[in-house]
Amino acid sequence: MAEPVHAQGAASVPRALVDALRMYGLLVWTWVRAAAQYPVSMVLLSLATAIVTGLDAAAIALLFSRAPRIGGFDASEVLFLYGTSALSFGISDVALGTTERLGFHVREGSLDAILVRPVSPLVQLATEEFSPRRFGKLVPAVLVLAFALTRVDAPWTPGRVAMIPVMVLSGTAIFGGLWVLTAAVQFVLLEFHGAAKSLTYGGAFLSQYPMTVFGRDLVRGVTFVVPLAFVNWQPALYVLDRPDPLGLPDAARFASPLVAAVLCAAAALAWRAGLRHYRSTGS
Amino acid sequence: MGVLPWVWWYGLRRHSSYPLGSLTEAGTNTVFGFMRAYVLIALWEVRPSLGGYAVADAITFCFITQALIGPVQIFGGLDLAERIRNGDVAIDLYRPVGMQGWWLAEDLGRASASLLLRAGPPLIAGSLFFPFRWPGALNLAAFAVAVPLAVAVGFGMRYLVAMGMFWLHDDRGLNAVTLVMSLFFSGMILPLVVFPGALGTVARSLPWAAQIQVPADVFLGRHTGLGLAGALGFQAGWAAVLLGAGALATRAARRKLVVHGG
């Protein structure tokens, strides 16, 4: 019951996907209508969410008020990294961020209630208490990215322009995969939530800055182990026409969609394995 | 007075009952410490001795902020707010000890647990991997005074936000506003010494500075003699102002609250 998609075979996967998305939209709409019962609160909270998310951009602006270049990159280039990272992370957070509560539901026993409903548990978790305030996270990202794109000194070609939406979408998929993957780990390790934040929120913070700032081993780690470098760094090297400090082949700059697909597949497998592994406490 | 040490003790016990969870949080604090340290190193490469900090000072500062996130609860929130919303606060008001004192004792217990479980890993990891400035004996002793004062200031603000529930019936808006202020003006996001001009002066005189920036400066040995007393006095002053405001708010709330059925 929990996994209707699984039972229907490959031919009906697109159909099941459409159903899941329709259900996602329906549940989102339900939660939004609930939140809209308190309109003032809703507006204030969206505004506050936007400001909190924008603090990282303010920090970057403060840094560059004290130094013209950091890690060899100027303000507009770092704001370009911030914009692409924050937009990718923001969209993935809006869509899937609440899946991080999985461990909480396991502990509280409320996952059992989720499992008996005839809707994918992932969709239920992702839409839980969906509030329009979540869209506040996208506001600073969009504003800063738009600003950075007008300022950044890149050798614009059709390919580079086309790379912008590709990198935002790939980055979104990479973060989306990380949300689901770190949620799936909580089926096994209930206390993993605290550490998962260093991958999700930590990844969002890391990808706001050029990798030249960070230690070489850290950069290797986020390139080959947790592929955060493919959220925006590798594509940005292509857009900004910069050399790769790790000296990876040029193909790496275009690998983001592939990396995103692999990570999402791994996340889907982990999620299914986690669901099968789950045993209710039963007391 | 007799019961408050017990409230402190049960707060400590309650908040140390999931040590593994606290340790994973400490792991995340450490990861963020590393990333923020690298960013600060990049800034200090361009601007050595910015704000009077050497690069080791900036790095140490960064790991202190991560160590203090838990104890001063920089992200806000107090369980009292939920109890005001659902009416359980009537029980708190019925107790033969003052409500603010009770919750302060509980919060100091929480902070102690957090200090024990969450402060160590970021500081140790930071000192192993980066140039680090350990304090002398005097500064360490002063730091041991500064941290409880920082917790008291943080509690004072969170208590006032919770008191807002009596009038607003919803603490999320207030929480969100204070979160912005406390992240930015405490030194969490960037050390306040980096803030330029008037912004820096204002930021260093607000109560949020007493939560992170001042204890970190005490740890780094930036204050000596009278300056050290002044720094601790700054914290104690804000704690007194906030707790005084909290006491007034409690009195007003007592008159405001009408419990169902009597």
From TrEMBL, chain B:
The chain crosses the membrane at residues 140-161, 173-199, 226-249. Keywords: Membrane, Transmembrane, Transmembrane helix. The keyword Transmembrane helix applies. It holds the Pfam family ABC2_membrane_6. InterPro entries: ABC-2_transporter-like. This is ABC transporter permease.
